[in-house]
Design brief:
Radius of gyration: 13 Å
Distance between the termini: 20 Å
Mean pLDDT: 87
Number of strands: 4
Oligomer: single chain
Structural class: alpha/beta
Shape: globular
Strand order of the largest sheet: 1-3-2-4
Length: about 100
């Protein structure tokens, strides 16, 4: 996970889905957002050699880091390409735990 914008308010976690360039467009996106909320990029961890073979596996790897940044309050999620599937899976898991996802 990489923080691309500091701030206060509801954080945005972006599963960028960019295997080759580590979601560099996320830095520009963070700068374009008008609110003062922090923005974090969540990198793809899919790699059969490391045992992370599914979107669900990847979300489980990211979840502790997300909860360390925002343990109780609401969060915002976004995703591109397979990152969209990861954002949806994370939203489902967090909502089952009673967390607010905007």
């Amino acid at each position: 996970m990489t923080r691309v914008k500091s701030g206060t308010g509801t954080p945005l976690f972006l599963f960028h889905g960019d295997y080759l360039h580590w979601g560099l467009y996320g830095y520009r996106l963070g700068a374009l957002l008008k609110d003062d909320a922090p923005v974090y990029l969540l990198h793809s961890l899919l790699n059969g050699a490391s045992g992370i073979e599914t979107i669900e596996d990847m979300v489980q790897q990211h979840l502790p880091h997300i909860e360390a940044v925002e343990p109780k309050g609401p969060i915002r999620l976004a995703g591109f390409c397979h990152g969209g599937h990861a954002a949806l899976e994370l939203a489902n898991q967090l909502e089952r735990r009673g967390r607010a996802v905007e």
